[in-house]
Write a structure and sequence with these properties.
Layout lengths: L13 E8 L2 E10 L4 H11 L13 E3 L7 E4 L25 E2 L4 E4 L10 E4 L8 E2 L1 E7 L1 H8 L6 E9 L3
Pfam families: Pro_isomerase
GO molecular function, one term: peptidyl-prolyl cis-trans isomerase activity
Protein name: PPIase cyclophilin-type domain-containing protein
Length: 169
């Protein structure tokens, strides 16, 4: 981890994504990360923008299973390739550390198993079917109503206006 992210508490850092749809502010989503996972460390780094790339100004490119079981908001393509980008910014995110869990509302999970899209993530809006497992690295701590609203909008209109980490007071 870098200088800036080295200042963030090691135990369960919290980040935020400020969502918008065009000129309309939708609100902030706060996410608590599992800091021991490489994918969570990458997510934190992309929220801060410490290595250059950032989720800032990226779009959510899909709503998975819209209005159905396992619905989720898919984003993380910071390269702007409409869901075909979002490469890992450092190694180790595709690994054995990930543990599959039953899909639950509020989880922030791996968006793609492909290395060229390893920064993609999905925020789960509804619990998944019993047989569906995901690879979580965080959980929404506040702002699920913002994610729910974003899921009602057309794909590629909702984006991240601002993002960063929340310093404990």
């Amino acid at each position: 981890m870098g200088v800036v992210t080295g200042l963030v508490p090691l135990n369960a850092p919290e980040v935020f994504l400020e969502l918008h749809d065009g000129n309309e502010a939708l609100g902030r989503v706060y996410i608590t990360l599992q800091s021991h996972l490489h994918r969570a460390q990458q997510f934190l780094t992309l929220c801060v923008g410490e290595k250059g790339p950032s989720f800032r100004n990226s779009l959510f490119h899909s709503v998975l299973r819209r209005s159905g079981t396992g619905e989720g908001l898919l984003g993380g393509d910071y390269e702007g390739k409409a869901g075909k980008g979002g490469a890992a910014i450092f190694g180790g995110v595709q690994g054995e550390e990930e543990v599959a869990k039953r899909c639950e509302r509020g989880m922030v999970v791996r968006g793609s198993p492909r290395a060229e899209m390893a920064a993609q993530f999905c925020i789960m809006v509804r619990d998944g079917p019993r047989n569906r497992t995901v690879f979580p690295f965080g959980r929404v701590s506040k702002g699920m109503s913002v994610v729910e609203e974003a899921c009602t909008r057309p794909a590629l209109t909702v984006g991240v206006l601002e993002c960063g980490w929340v310093l404990p007071v």
